[in-house]
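pasting Chondroadherin-like protein for the record, 1261 residues
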Amino acid sequence: MATDIVAQLADSLAKTGVEDGELSYKGQGRKLDDAQSVEEIVKEIQDFEGLQALRLEGNTVGVEAAKAIAKALETKSEFKRCYWSDMFTGRLRSEIPPSLNSLGDALMLAGARLTVLDLSDNAFGPDGVKGIENLLKSTACYTLQELRLNNCGMGIGGGKILAASLIQCHKKSSADGAPLSLKVFVAGRNRLENDGATALAQAFQLMGSLEEVHMPQNGINHPGVTALATAVQHNPQLRILNLNDNTFTERGAIAMAQGLKHLRSIQVINFGDCLVRPEGAIAIAESVSEGIPILKELNLSFCEITEEAALAVAHAVKDKLSTPVSAPRPPDVSSFLSFPSPDKLLKLGARRALLIEQQVDVTDAAKTAEAFLKIASVYKDENNDVKDAVLDSIDALLKKAFSTPSFQGYSFVSSLLVLLGLLKMDIFSAAVLMLISAQSLPAEAGKCPRLCSCDGAKLTVACVGKNLTVVPPTIDEITVKLDLRNNNLQVLARGAFVPTPYLTHLNLQRCNIIKVKEGAFRSLNRLVSLNLAHNKIDILYQESFDGLSSLKELHLDHNRVEEIQPGAFTQLGFLNMLALTHNQLVYIPNMAFQGLQNIKWLRLSHNSLNNLAPEAFAGLFTLSRLSLDHNELQFFPTQTMTRLSEVTRLDMSHNPMTYLGEESVSMAKLTHLYLDHMSLQDLSDQALSRAPLLKHLDLGHNQLRYLEPLSGPKELDSLNLTGNPVYCNCYLRPLKEWASVGGVKLLGACAAPPHLSDEPLQAVAPLDLRCRSRLEVLTDEFEGDNESTGSSAPTAEPKQNVKCPVNCDCDIDAQHATCEGRGHTKVPRGFPAKTQLLDLRSNHFHYLPASSFPGAGQVVSLHLELCKIREIESGAFRGMRNLLYLYLSDNDLTSLDPGAFAGTPELTYLHLEGNHLTQFPGPALAVLPNLFVLHLEQNAISKLEPAGLLSSVAPNLRELYLTNNSIAAISKGALDSAFLGTLHLDANELKEVPTHALSGVPNLEVLNLSHNSIRSVGPNAFKPASQSLKRLYMDQMGMEKLSRNALAGLGAGLRSLTVRGNQLEELPELNPLTGLEVVGLQDNPLLCDCALLPLRRWMENVSLQVIATCGQPPELRGQMVRDVPVFKSCPESSSPPHQKVVVDPRPPKYRPQITGSPVKPEHRKSRATCTSHRTSSLMMAAAMDVDTPSGTNSGASKKRFEVKKWNAVALWAWDIVVDNCAICRNHIMDLYMDTSCIIVKAFICFDMRHHHFFSDPYHNF
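structre below
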């Protein structure tokens, strides 16, 4: 009942300065550009005696206006509180520092002593912090208690400036005997990161007075969190700590847990979405149990904690809640009414309304007015608890007042309003009439405009379809809903709705509106829904929506919008939904939607968008749903979409995209992705690798024949392939098996082969997915011919209405034509001129002569798979100037004429897999300057040569697939290419990593070497590509050794590493690979002893799912490396000087040697169990008869003698190895060059019968 009154009262109180010493212009949406525009404000500031607070939130202040306001503040020595959040909306960043400097200089000149400085939501960046730097260091801030800089975009630089200023202020104020005692610090959403947080932590530690710290969404990782953890220990009065949505990890969480133990006053801890992980959560739980006596709230949501950790936290919190607390003081109503505050009102408890009602004598109009005023003065719209408490209390007070005899008539109401100190009685006239109506007292009804219908009870006015050209000026002031649909307003003039300031819903559909002038809505600061759909608006100007500070829904559908000017939406900070569908947008510029701080759904469907600027959606931190369907986007806008960290639903359907490459979708929280009704012909298995939470993927009605298992999404529930020409053969089996294992529901049906046609993908059995031999195909064709010969004539097909070759189907609307599997021996002619997709697969062409496709100049995609093509004549595709995709898979090509692809300058994707090519078709590719992806899998290519093979014929090639050929050699420089990013060499005959061939591929990101016969990978094997490589696959190679330095140079950039199904007993150090997201170590016979301890520790410290099993020793075979207890007995770092080196003394089993293959001994190699780096230096020192550093071979002659003795034995053994056994030579190199341990005495025993070594520092030679 009292909601509207309180809202109006709060506004009036703020403006008229009823609250002690405060002058407010909050939320008025004023555009204050120059001195003239602030004359009224300046005069009111000058006339306000004892001014202590100034509210400028929700306006936009220019440089000259700020100077004028500053001039007025120069005499206000009692000034204390600056509420200046969101007051630079739409201003250039360069305007903000001088404005802040002017205001700060004025406060310093006035001798003000600030307690509150609020500059939140101003997005002024690091430069803006410079604008308050001098102020923060001055005497004006010695008394500062609250500093609020939320959502200002300060960045690291701004954070450092702020920290330095606070430190300087504290030092100077301490020297004056009154050190800075800041209590509340707010700086969320500023991207302070580690360096900014660390700098501020130093300031916090120095001050030691903080009670509240709010720093959510700042990109702070464990180094910054650790610094803050140290700082909070020095702030014992801290009550609230909010670091939501940063990244603690275990290290940061454990450090913070230690800090929390010192906070005896902490009541609220918000570490939600901070990735504390199980160990961190348990550490925090222990701190809560041990040292936090009055905790009220602990938030660890979305922190990836286990059930065990969650239970530990639950028990800790339960123990806190069960701790007896002292009895609360009885509520003191008199204290609240004497000195009102929100805290005091809340402390009155649930009975506050009754207590206040009993305390106030409503028969005395003056006392009632005073109580009413004091309750309303603590109203806070942003705090629901305070808001509800105020409304309940006022309702109770008014109810009691209404029941008294003195409330009969208007006399009491008039005296009440006068006592409230309001200058304008008409502000409350409508609200009071409502209250009187509620008590069934007579009231004069508001006037209703002619041609309109009004509902006084619901406060609605409808003037629908009356051909109005202006907004009726006589609409009742208290109207809350106004419907003006189907009129002819054309232009919305400035101040058009000033007479109706209480509107919450305004419908202006189909009003032929062409332009919205500046200030048209400026008086509607209560409006929550505005509908401007079906008009003729073409430009959204910067000031179009000024004044709509409460708007939540804005409908601009079905207009002619083709331009969004910068700052158009900056006044709409509370907007939840913006609809711009069915407009004429072609391009979205950077920062187009700046200011939409609470947007949830942005609808841009049915436009003509073909380009999105990289920062088009920057600043939309709350956006969860984006609709971009029915546009003209030809490529997935990866760079733009990556900025949308909170989006869960994305609709990109009905866009002409043909391909989705690796990591195209990089959206961490995306759950629903719609890519249906596009033109997708290919989709990389890594396209969604950066969308781990994806649950529903719609690929319906595209042109996908095959799809590989998708990497990345771990929670995918459904994959829709309905309407795709899915070919259900052996190539689909991996997808089917992947879906079965992951519980993914496949929607759609098989399109071929005929016996599986229309079979649901979910129902088809993996065993039915097989590839038939040529004999089976010929048999089916022969049987089909016999059946057709003996059967009756088929029913005549309906006469075609469009131009189309005989025995083909043409769809004019879809621009598709198909003659698939119709038995053609020559390429049909006469397709519609606008055909873009031409499908001729599964015919019997054998030979393609020159100019085989006349009139096909618009074709974008041409399918010629399974057509038994043996030869392509020069110029066969001449005239196909728009051809992007060419599929020649599974034919009988053995070579290609140099001019085979002449006349196709735009060809981008070429499929030649499944042919019989014996050489890389370089000359034929030379005429394709735009070739981007080349598929040559399943051919008979044996070598890649000469140097310059790629750079000379395909300089722009990005992806090269050579899987399942016979490649045994790659010439140096053959793969040189400045753009090559993906290289698949798996299932070939390589014997070693082609390191020399990678030196000229500076941008290589994906390298697949799986299923080659590479037994050993030596040091620096991938060094040439180390700066760019992201994914490395080495599965099923029979690899026995991966050198300790094999991965040298590969650091944080590597994201995937797989060595599955090899014969590895040990692995190199993986700690440098900090960016790994996928690691495959399965099916390797790892030797689980202390040498594997670094791997075990690495597995414990990463959040990846790593599967590794022991192969040796026998008693541990098959057990998970994570689970075996053998590592508990291993030394923490290096071994003691005299630790024995453990070696298996058993000889290997005899195995006949097979010619051409290396002999693989079945015993494990000698290895040391310690981790120093001295052995090789010791060996070299002994060989040269010199002293080693650090005393290893210096001083005593006895030690020198032992080294000489060791040297003689080593040289003797080496001579035998060189002369007798290459395998043993490798063993001894492993022993002395790869092993790292401190051995004062080292000996080698060599057994010629078993080719076996062991080292023993205690062996008596």
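The chain has a mean pLDDT of 80.
The CA atoms of residues 249 and 1050 lie 23 Å apart.
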